[in-house]
Amino acid sequence: MTKLNENRKENIQPRPPVVVVVGHIDHGKTALLDSIRKSRVREKESGGITQHIGAYEVEKEGRKITFIDTPGHEAFSQMRSRGARVADIAVLVVAADEGVKPQTKEAISHIKKSGVPIIVALNKIDKPEANPDKVKGELAKNDILVESMGGKIPSIETSAKEGKGITELLEIILLVAEMENLKGDINKPGEGAVIEAYLDAKRGPTATLLLRDGALNKGDIVATPSTSGKIKILENFQGDLIEKSLPSMPIIVLGLNSVPQVGEKFKVFPDMESALKYVEKKERKAEKAEVIFVEPGKKVLNIILKADVLGILEAIEGMIKILPQERVLLRVLKSEVGDINESDIKLAQSSRASIFGFRVKVNSSLLRIAEREKVRIITFEVIYELVQGIRQVMERVMKSEKVRVDLGKMKALVIFLTEKNRQIVGGKILEGEIKKGTLIEVLRNDELIGRGRLISLQKEKKNIESARKGEEIGILYEGDVKIEEKDTLLIYLEEKHKGEL
User: Fold this and answer.
1) Which one of 16, 280, 328, 386 has the minimum C-beta count within 10 Å?
2) CATH architecture assignment, domain 185-278
């Protein structure tokens, strides 16, 4: 063996496994990671659900494991799919007291498409209603056959609350990783994927990268298909400054010229010229102006979306696309990461748009400008509350509609009194029910000749609230035409219905 080959062999070393944790909402994914990391991330999350992808390193008997925590809310299908794509191993978390749910099935689909090995964590085993055997049967129906049922997929019973099964889960992960023979070349230029990205108000474009192979050093030139730059600051997942990162490490980098797209691949280049060639020439999706044709008479709601990170922005855009738009068209004029700024308010003012922000700030001076210019700014901490807020504004754009409700029909038999625009008319109810305070259409020979109001009702010289078919009554009528004997009176109401999508 030549010296060159020996050196190359030394460069290729075992790398830590990258593990994605997936499953249905509230089945305990983040709580399980909390138990593993001995931290309390879940308590910091708005609404008790994870809304960003986080990557974390843990150590077990001197060996490292990188975990990717993906959001469980239904809005984050793309983010979960992305998480599965960058992983070596998938831990499918299923609550032992609830079993297989819609997002469990979706997660199974993503894992199978990615082709990574699966480990099942039957969580919440501490609950009295937990039934692991039943859950295993449900998993089998979805082509996930665990070892205890004759399959090849390992399963562990866990309790994030009590810390049960955590050690065994880590041992299984390391065993599967050993079987997968995961390697990385530490002398190769680094490459990997963008896990998260956002615009930090003080530090500028910030990206969380997962290094899949090679090494990434402070000062390296990096590019994705949408941006490039020289790494000025390199941090580990805990925010500590480092000079170099190795395969499977999650890292935070600063120095990119703009915020990259979440899910993009990144590479290290020898010089900026090579990096720029890698960057796509086309405009970023977020900067493209979409041409929308609006039907005449159709209502339009213009909105500006601001979010703290791109992954969230992507999820919001996906959710609002499925809002009903038959009656009100939703037009997104601008969609980007970062705090709400003066240019957002100017755009909103000129286009009569509303600004919706997710986990972003707006300073008091801008709020005063927005109030003066009558620009609506609404910020949220939970994604589905933001989408619901957009829906409510869309419904307010629609005017309340008057809906006619037919109540009954009456035949005029005798005119007792006529003065100015009022008459007392006696008659018989032919259909339905007649109530006081309702509206009247006067028909003569089946033709509409005028309209009026039914002021009051009487029967046997006593005031009544309503009367039904077959009863003979007297009414006090007020209207623009005179009722004659044998006219037909249609009694109805007009109700205001709130605009609904």
Assistant:
1) 280
2) Beta Barrel (2.40)
